[in-house]
Amino acid sequence: MPFEVTYETTVPSGWPQLVLELHGRDFFGRNVVRGYGCVHLPSAEGKYITYSFRHERTVHLFQPKPISVITGLLGYLNGCTAEYKEAEKVLATGEGREVTRVKTTGQAHVKVETVKYNFNLYGYS
Prior knowledge:
The chain is mainly beta. It is built from two helices and five strands, in the order E-E-E-E-H-H-E. The protein has one domain (17-119).
């Protein structure tokens, strides 16, 4: 699903990340989380395509595992699978990730176009 976002900065530190939270339908037609992923947006030049630079990234997706088999079964029946409350914070900073058990759920392919404009005015080349 294509969309457009514009970021502007005068300082290259803290470059933005793309945090993905993908939803889908389960067996009963309920909307549930299918996977999470995170990738840093590129600041370097990529393949030149008409005034912009294209980058392609593969984002590996994962999903938190339930604490036990019973909670997993009850969550499946209730339509409340294991998920993060503050996904952006957990994924972007990594805070709390070391104690979370996860399973891989696939990959997402992302195409990003980067345009550098007036970097030399701020002392960057």
